[in-house]
Each structure stands twice: as structure tokens, then as C-alpha cells.
Input
Amino acid sequence: MKTFKKMWRKSVGRLPEWLKLSAMGVIALGLFGLGAVVAWATFMPIPSIDNFQSRQVAESTKIYDRTGNIVLYDVHGSVRRTSVPLEEMSPFIQKATIAIEDDTFYEHFGFRPLSFARAVWADITTGSFEQGGSTITQQVVKNALLTQNKTITRKIQEIILAIRLDHAYPKDKILETYLNENPYGGTIYGVQEASQYFFGIDAKDVTIAQAAYLASLPQAPTRLSPHGSHRDQLEGRKNLVLAKMLEHGFITEDQHSEAAAEVVQFKDAAEAGIKAPHFVFYVREYLEEKYSPEVVQVGGLKVITTLDYELQEKAQEIVTRRALSNEKQFNAENAGLVAIDPTSGQILTMVGSRGYFDDQIEGKVNVTIASRQPGSSFKPFVYATAFEKGYTPETVLFDLKTQFSNACAPSDFRSEYPCYSPENYDHKFRGPIDLRSALAQSVNIPAVKLVWLAGVEDSIGTAERLGLTTLGDAARYGLTLVLGGGEVKLIEMVSAYGVFANDGLRNPPTAILRVEDSNGKVLEEYTKKETRVMEAQVTRQISDILSDNVARTPLYGASSPLYFGETDVAAKTGTTNENRDAWILGYTPALAAGAWAGNNRQAAMNQISGLIVTPMWREFMDIAIAKFPGSSFMPPAPDPEYDQLPPVLRGEWNTNPAQGPHEILHWVNRTNPRSGPPANPAGDPQYAYWEYSVGLWATGQSIGVPGVPSPIDGQSGFRILTPQAGAAMPFGSSITVSAYYPLPQNVQSISYFLNEQPIGTANQPPYAITYVPSVRGPVVLKALAQTPQGLETNAITFTVQ
Output
């Protein structure tokens, strides 16, 4: 302290005299003004504290369905409040509240100038104007005597009345009033009612840990509710309260440790009369964040939501019944469902679990806003990205067992890190397949190739444009993105699929039609916020594929639950590794709906079957489509450039048998597929890997020159794969040299020579080495295969520029 004082004096001593005098004048004026306020507040008469409760008007906020006739939730209903004297409240409740709300409560005079100044400064510097700085006394005044309007006048009134109140009444009486009237969520007011509601005990019997939970709630009663979806935030707030109690000497180290370790059991939160509870608390959290918890508690708001309660009731019954059946058959105990009008973004249905009050499955967690892996239901975003870049539904890729990791050899088909060689759902491979069939049948290998062609970062960008917010940095995923490597929310997936349904126009999901205050003044009202995020042609291509029953028949059968007869319905399923998530997303032009099934605790289902989630979704869709019939999908327009496209984009994968089959990287520039063939196909790091699998497949299928058993290019079968003959390679850059041999078991090694100088030897297919050319101009690359029958030779010429 002495050092600080010396530094202060020294710093002040350097200041100019006019600045010192000005500062002293400002300080003196501030002290005089503060003294005048204190004097005025001290001697002016104030209302009796006994009148506070009667003067407090607690008007009920009601949340309605979209008709405005059905009350989903009455925030107050019959207000639950039981007042008790301070001596009948656990001292831990008092200490926990003071520690987190106002740690100098017993020292100040109703107002803390420094805390207030800090709050004002934070508001000014951040522009948020959300800092409080209010004492417990100020909060009593604000709740009992004043409006909730956040104005400078009201704040001054609050400060003056708090000083007067503190002068006229004992601190204990002020604290007692605060603890008896504070909101703790829903219809619960006061610590006695809260203690009974949450713990089933009186306020006088509350433990330290229980007191810490109670002190945590007033900051955000809905968001921090132990019965809501944010238990982690409640735990963090409770731990902060305990730390503050220890910091201020209200509890000992041992008490802190014991309380931090205590597992508190909360009572069942079932309250009569609440309808669509997950949706209601989704709405209420929005209201509290926008208007403040105090306004929602006592502001008398009338909230007209977007919910179609008739459809909601049917959805809840379907989800509950199907989930209970799934638990017995598949160990999938929970499920959720969301339906949205894609033309407006209005949420029509939200079922967050099979039962809100079912604690056995953590039913209060709203799975529609929880992050889960989407599996193959993410694929349409990658396909849409590829179509935007110029690929077509007729584009052909090879569905073959393929190694995608450059850390492993193309012949190494392991998938353990650092290798990556995924399987298809049926462990079969189909050879050449067009993108329409690959997406409709959810084939994995072409999808992984397509995310390489479309780009991981661009695919994430597409998903984010359509409404997904949880994916983050592209570097986290790599090629696994297309198989659902990220985490997404069901409500955002349904909204994003709604963009496909709505011809590329996005309407953000909304739950609110109108909010009125207690005087009937409209505070907010739904307005359409539609923006174009994708060209209509691309979304029509996706819808055309996802509603193509012929294209998906090889996977689902001709009469699957995805087929609605004459009604156009697009749909995509998804499952995740380790059988943890089952998804289905689908839509018509008038309705988008998605369902999820699994376990909140991430336990695996005992199998992945279309019977887990699809029948639930189909039963709901039959009802929803009858109520919200949609028109047919608009078909994609003819492609004016189609006849000029590279053959592989038109479905022609083997137009030159003399060359043999090649993967798409051989024929097109992957970032601009309509621009013609690449100058150096082998320069793509995936080229040798994809070509290797195609070469093996071609040999087995005898594709090439008619009459020759196993050729690829009309030669003996042995050939240099990369680089291509006639290619132009940049000087000073590393190139991959590789070769194909039809019977690798007969090859002991393959050695490479550039202009007759040895550059390397490889022993395993595809016999790849890397090399940096040190000469310019035309060069001859020779490959010598050592076999039991002797040497076989293949040579090409390419150019180093």
C-alpha cells in the first residue's frame, strides 16, 4: 500500500497544475453531488416496506399456440409464493445469495458507487448496456416499486429509493424481502417455495450445495433451470457461488470441498397444464434473452407462437409410442421431431424427447437443439456444392474400395489412423455409378470422392449458408465430413433442408408470431426474412434426386416408407458410426420435417435399421401432409451446355476403350470441371490412389481392348500410372511416380529411371516414389519390373517446364 501511495503521489506530481485543479474540482463536485443525493434520500419520507408486496404487480405472461386460443404455458398461473421470516431460512441461503449478488450488502448504504461506475463503464466501452451493478436493496426496490423499463430516470429513482430504504429499514428486513419475493423459475417465488419445489424440503433445511443452486437461478431462471437443457451452465454457476462463498469467508475449505462434491437430487418438475414443454421453454429462453427474465416473470406479455398444437399433440404421441417400442427392440430409448414451414421458417412442431418429465432418459434435454453427428444426412450439402461447381447428376464416379490417406499406400485398404478407407453400408462396391444413384442410395465411396472434388471448406460454407451453425473449422474434418463427421442440430438440419424445398430461399427458423405487452402494445411481430442462399437450379437437382423412387429402389425397395405415391416427397436418411444416431430428413414444397432416434447418453443402439426412425417420421408425415398439402417439385431446367460437357459429366465413363477406364480426376479439372481436362492429372494428390483401385477393378472386369484378358491400355497390362505420357510438370516441384502391374504377386520390385539415371525403387503396389526433377525439357521415364520371368519394361515421355 505504501508503495502504491508513493507511486500515486509521484505520478500526480508530474501532472500540470491546471489538470490537477480540474481533477480536484471534478472530484469535489462529485462528492458534493453524492452527498446531496444521500442527504435527500435519507430525510425524504418513503412508503412503508409492508406495502411493497401489495404494490408489486405480477401480471401473468401467457404463451399461446398459433391460433391464439390455446394457452401452452402460463408463466405465473397461480403464483407459488410462501413468505417466511429470515430466521426460518437456512443461513447458507443467505450467505450464498449475498456472495454472488452483493458481497458488501451489510457494509454499504443501499448503493455501491464504485460497482455502479464499473458497470456504467463496461456498458459504455462494450456498448452492451447489460451490466447491472445493482445491490440487493436496489433489486428489492426495482421489483417492488418501479417499472422494468431500462431508462436513466428509472435507474436514478432506483438508486435514490434504495438509499432511502436502506436508511429506514434494517438490513435483515431488506434481505428477507428479497429472498421471499425473488423469482426462481416458472411460477416459483421465494426461497421457501423454491426449496420445496426443487428439493422437497423447507428453506431452513437447505444444505450449502442446495443453497448454491438456489442462488444461481435468479440470473436466468429458465436457462439455468435444473429441468432444462443447460445443466452444464447451472453447474458452472453453482461452482462460482461456492467459490465466492469461500472467498468471502462464508464457508470453510472443508465445507467448500464437501459441497462441491455433493450430488444434489432435484424433485420431479411435472407441473399440471404445461403443453409442448420443450417448445415452451425454447420460446421462454428466447423471451428472457430479449426482454430479460424480470419482464417475462411480471410483464404480462401475450406471446402468440408458431406452434400448430393439433399437429404437436399427434407428433408427441407418435414419438412417445415409437420410442418406447424402439427401446425394447433396438436399445434406442429416445427420439425427437421437428417440422417447419419452409416458406416462412415458422416452427410447426417441436418434440424434444419421448417425455419431458421422464428422468430415466434425461427427457428434459431438448434433443432438437442438441448437437449430434448427422451421418449420411449431411451428404446433400456436399452434392449441392458439387452441382454449384458444375458437376451434374449424371457425373460418374467409381464406387471401389479406395485408400484416401496419403499417409498410407494406395494398396493399403486399412481405415485405422492414419489410413482412411471407408466402407459402404452393405460392404459392396458397384464400380462406375452416377451421382444421382450414389446419393439416392447413400453410397459412401463416391460421396467421399465428391467432397474432395467439391472441397471440404466450400461444402461447410454451403451448409452454413443453409443454416447450420455448429460445424466450425474445416481442418477438423477432412474427407470424413461427408459421412457426418461434424455435429449438427436437428432443428437447423430441418431448416437447411427447407432451403431445398423452397427453391434456394432461406427463412430462418422462428417460433414467434407476435408479442404484446400488458397494454396490448405490439413489441414484435413476425415478418418474413427470406434470402436467397442457393440457385434454384441446384436445389431442384437435389429435390429431383431425393424424391426419385426409381433411383433409390436398389437400397430401399420400390414400396419403402420414403415413397408417397403421387405426392412429391424428398427424403434422406443418416446413421452414424457405433450405432449412436439414426436420422431422417424430408420435405415437400410446403413442409420440412426431420426426426432423430438414439440415446441422450450416447449409448449405442444394438443395430442400425431403417425401422428405428423412418416409420416414426412416415407416420407423422402422412398426418402433416394431409394438413399442409404441397405442390409438386419444380423439375430442374435443361442444361444448355450439356452436349459440350466432358463425357464423364454426361455419364460416359469409358468412351475410349483403347485408353482403358480412368477416374474422373483423369478427365476434368476438379475445381472447374467444365473447363476441360487438367494439364497434369497426376499432380492431384488423390490421383494415384483412385487410379490404383480403378486399375484393379478394370483387370478383374476384363475391360479394355476386346479379346485381351486383363489389359488396361492395350499393352501387356504393365504401365506407368503417373505422371501421364505427354504431361507438363513444373520444374522444382515434387512429382509422384507410380505404376500398375496386373499380377502384383509376381512382382518383386519396380525401379524407375529418368533419362537412364536411377531415381528410386518400390516394392508394393502402386509402386509409388516421389521425385523432384532437376532438369528441364522433354524427359524419358522408364519403369523396370523385376519378375520371376525376368524384366518387363514400360516407358513414357513427359516435359519438365
